[in-house]
Amino acid sequence: MRLVILEEYDKASEWAAKYVRNRILEFKPGPEKFFTLGLPTGSTPLGMYKKLIEFHKSGKLSFKYVKTFNMDEYVGLAKDHPESYHNYMWENFFKHIDIDPKNVHIPDGNAEDLDEECRKYEEEITKAGGVELFVGGIGPDGHIAFNEPGSSLVSRTRVKTLAQDTIIANARFFNNDILKVPTMALTVGVGTVMDAREVMVIITGAHKSYALYKAIEEGVSHMWTVSAFQQHPRAIFVCDEDATLELRVKTVKYFNSLMYVHNKLVEDNDESLNEVKRQKLK
């Protein structure tokens, strides 16, 4: 497990975007070899998406051979509803890049048979060869996707009733009217995300500092589902300084002591990728 601490939100977002970019380019995707990327919604990943769009528009990154699987979707919202996750993803990311719409996968919260929709979603992930990198964010109560406190840590994609805290937290997207917030969602399970070959969780803001503490310093618990990723063989937590407020000083110092190595790796990757690009232009 790695914990990468950046000074503030924008720097954490840029680091996460560079990591996604480098993983895709190193994978060398093509017609017979797609890179499969799991994606989140919410306010936290917006900075990462903005930077990835910049990489694409500057010619540094293509999504032509990338398949995506989103974490969740509300039940009952039309796909074109301003707050649906279908709309969120197209407005904030997909329409700005060169991804083929047929390679975009988002659960259908209006499916006639929701349980069958969840089963097929798991099937599509399997058909794609599994997820190479699953990027996620968390709620203040430590839930990943919509795996609320108490969710099974081996759960799969399913219909989930949302906790009151989650409804209240999401009310800001519905004119602060909790009566307008859907009470159910389709969500990938903790087990679904754990199956990914790598997981990167972005955690920013003081309001999520206690959740980060639970995720990093305490044991694995189904009451804090993000803590499950302590047991993932390749998990990265990317956060800003505000999110570390509840961590022990020695924990922060330990991971900060590794930042030189982390930064050097990123710099080396950037230079290697530039060299690859120079060779292609010859």
UniProtKB/TrEMBL annotation:
Keywords: Carbohydrate metabolism, Cytoplasm, Hydrolase, Isomerase. Belongs to the glucosamine/galactosamine-6-phosphate isomerase family. It catalyses: alpha-D-glucosamine 6-phosphate + H2O = beta-D-fructose 6-phosphate + NH4(+). It is found in: Cytoplasm. One of its GO terms (molecular function) is identical protein binding. Homohexamer. Pfam families: Glucosamine_iso (PF01182). Its EC number is 3.5.99.6. Signal peptide: none annotated. It comes from Stichopus japonicus (Sea cucumber). The keyword Hydrolase applies. GO terms for cellular component: cytoplasm. GO terms for biological process: carbohydrate metabolic process; glucosamine catabolic process; N-acetylglucosamine catabolic process; N-acetylneuraminate catabolic process. This is Glucosamine-6-phosphate isomerase. The keyword Hydrolase applies. InterPro entries: Glc/Gal-6P_isomerase (IPR006148), Glucosamine6P_isomerase (IPR004547), Glucosamine6P_isomerase_CS (IPR018321), NagB/RpiA_transferase-like (IPR037171). Residues 16-230 form the Glucosamine/galactosamine-6-phosphate isomerase domain.
